[in-house]
Amino acid sequence: MKAVGVVVEYNPFHNGHLYHIQKAKELTQAEIVIAVMSGPFLQRGEPALISKWSRAEMALENGIDLIVELPYPFATQHAAVFASGAVEILHSLGCDYLCFGSESGNINEFDSIFNLLAEKKDEEDRLVKEYMKQGMSYPKAKSCAIQELTSVNKTQGLNLHMPNNILGYEYYKSVRSNAYPMQVCTVARIKADYHDKKFTSDTIASATSIREELLQTAGSLTTIEPFLPSSSYQALQQYKETYLTYHTWENYWSYLKFRLLQTTAEELSTIYEIEEGIEYRFLKYVKEASSFQDFIRLLKTKRYTWTRLQRICVHILTNTKKEEMQTYSKPAYIRLLGTTANGRLYLKEKKKQFLLPIISKLSSFEKEKIVLDVRASQIYALGVPVAAQQKLLEMDYSKPPIMK
Amino acid sequence: MKAVGVVVEYNPFHNGHLYHIQKAKELTQAEIVIAVMSGPFLQRGEPALISKWSRAEMALENGIDLIVELPYPFATQHAAVFASGAVEILHSLGCDYLCFGSESGNINEFDSIFNLLAEKKDEEDRLVKEYMKQGMSYPKAKSCAIQELTSVNKTQGLNLHMPNNILGYEYYKSVRSNAYPMQVCTVARIKADYHDKKFTSDTIASATSIREELLQTAGSLTTIEPFLPSSSYQALQQYKETYLTYHTWENYWSYLKFRLLQTTAEELSTIYEIEEGIEYRFLKYVKEASSFQDFIRLLKTKRYTWTRLQRICVHILTNTKKEEMQTYSKPAYIRLLGTTANGRLYLKEKKKQFLLPIISKLSSFEKEKIVLDVRASQIYALGVPVAAQQKLLEMDYSKPPIMK
């Protein structure tokens, strides 16, 4: 059985994701689709709207055959680390293809840039440092450096200021630089930009615009219905009924505030990604901020992007230390979230060739290896009202993989 | 001007406290009464129902002339440390007398036991250790040891199983063993026992029974009105109107739970009073407990008293480390909460003789010395609904001492 892998967040699963899965199958003629998905906290440093289990359900209803969790130490990172963790897992699961969505839609453009930059690594590093000295953030400096190097050599074409092109390039680079035997292809995003906050088509909308709408309509989902498969729509409705809320940063603001008010600069500086004295800004502005949004607005500088600050807040919330993260240079396990019958066939056929152990139940695995994922799930559960917390809190210990 | 000192919590201030102040004046003929009062967290390991500022107002309206805060490292401790901090402060403020309430009401009984135990220190220590080996808690072992030593020598009389006798004995011991030039006297508690949960008189009730009633009547204070001076009654009403709630442990339960869920046993073991592997019980039961009461009930053992467990929870909430507490063997400052005109006269007359610096405004004092008190106030402020938090949060930075 040939498998194509995709890297996803499904926050929430919408028609654009469905299109991506269909195209991935069409392009590769693969028989099964494997997704590696972020858990409770996402690459943008935000809690997922609904739990990983509900998002996995959505995926399995709509064309994904096997879905696993991207561990916390990779899911909550900038593009390069996020991509390397995801690619490693897809490779370990024996994927023959990797297919990602991009603004470009042309894999040759990724190939050209990769070949060019492979020769110019030192120059790239030098330019990144130079731009950062001028006060740019790392992602901004990186895309400017690449843009400068490539435009000089007339291989324009791939716009590396576009968010999905950036991530896509990192996937491509991970596969190629590790020389993994995986073919990489890309599907052009259609009808919606990543950053769109308003709807621009009748059936396809960005996850960003769907979230905006969802959080504003206080319970009524009718305006987002056209953009989601019906099973996704129902899962969203059901989640709200069961847990009384979607998860947004504001649900965690009082916890973050509490943690910052009870701690010292010295203690805070042990948290992952707290660097360069930024801890003092955190301790100063927490006393003034009236909400999470307000807090990030106060913290924001030219050098620290909104998403980087949000990711730091996630690490404070989950109490993730620098020394803990050091031990996770590569994924050490694969947490299985769910399978279809087709996915189970694949598992049966390929399991022995997998390069990492598969965790189906927490009890069957050394817990210290998965401690960061478990902690993130526990903290995530506190984002719903007390009455609904226990159910969510226990899920990570008792829930077996979903079988469709 | 002669001054009598009292050690108080006023949670809340009631007619029994008024009686104590009047008797203290009568017995000593002192011209002013000085109170040293716990701040946001109390000796029993509970948040105070209302803020220290509102409790200081109550005190100044009802006979106290000068009120200062017992710093956190003494206020949240077992009887001996609580008493030694409070006595030290009253001595530093030049009090000529110390007057405490007790079940006994006879200072000679305290004197006899002190003299007897001074000779039998080693035997007392040995007995305490022995009883603890049998599984008793420290306070229980201590009162049993003393009871055994004193009954053998026919100086019964002082029942050291009674909570106010225990505290009183510690005050008495602090004054005598430091040879402070302070006369000590005691007033018998009337008409209500410390542990009473029901009302047993028409005008005097224990703070415990008043709190029980207050928290059950959801807003209506009429049933407790007979037991409070009218100014106290009004202050309680006003507090609820301004901050929407009284402070109870349940208001902090979600923060405590969050902190425990995000931490490791190793990190938890750095918290003050976490000893003997009790951290593992905390981490285990937090996942099962449905409320703070339920949590303590699950944690409870023969050796760990309810109040000791609550005090540990306070230290977790305020993130107070063992190494921080080590630096506070004696009070280093006196935080002034309020004065009457009479109190200000006393300050003017005696200020130069005080043995510790007086802090009237936070900005005028080295902040690192008062960091634990400030942190405790900040965390305490999170116990009210978000809408009312900011006002309470800023109070510790901006509020000057109360002038009556």
TrEMBL record, chains A, B:
GO biological process, one term: tRNA modification
Catalytic activity annotation: cytidine(34) in elongator tRNA(Met) + acetate + ATP = N(4)-acetylcytidine(34) in elongator tRNA(Met) + AMP + diphosphate
Main localization category: cytoplasm
Family matches, as HAMAP family: TmcAL
Protein's name according to its UniProt entry: tRNA(Met) cytidine acetate ligase
EC supergroup of this enzyme: ligase
Function per UniProt: Catalyzes the formation of N(4)-acetylcytidine (ac(4)C) at the wobble position of elongator tRNA(Met), using acetate and ATP as substrates. First activates an acetate ion to form acetyladenylate (Ac-AMP) and then transfers the acetyl group to tRNA to form ac(4)C34.
Species annotation: Niallia alba
Positions with a binding annotation for ATP: 7-20, 101, 164, 189-190
This protein's UniProt keywords: ATP-binding, Cytoplasm, Ligase, Nucleotide-binding, RNA-binding, Transferase, tRNA processing, tRNA-binding
Localization annotation: Cytoplasm
UniProt gene name: tmcAL
GO CC annotation terms, alphabetical: cytoplasm
